[in-house]
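W.,

You were right to be curious about this one. When I first looked at the sequence I had no strong expectations either way, so I just let the prediction run and decided to look at it fresh. Below is the sequence, 54 residues in total, followed by the output.
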Amino acid sequence: MAKSKKKAETVFLVCEETGDYNYSLRRKPGGEKLKVKKYSPRLRRHTVHNEKKK
């Protein structure tokens, strides 16, 4: 039997300071959660964003 492929899932990048869902992306499940510095429109500066499933 063939192995089943893991489908890409939608995850959101949430601002640590405001809690806003600013970015969404599709990625394969597994691996470590993302922790990236991205632009926060509300604060108008770069802040740390964490990966979160909705």
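Here's what jumped out at me. The domain at 9-52 is CATH 2.20.28.120 (Rubrerythrin, domain 2). And, maybe more interesting for your project: The two ends are 33 Å apart (CA to CA).

Coffee later to discuss?

I.
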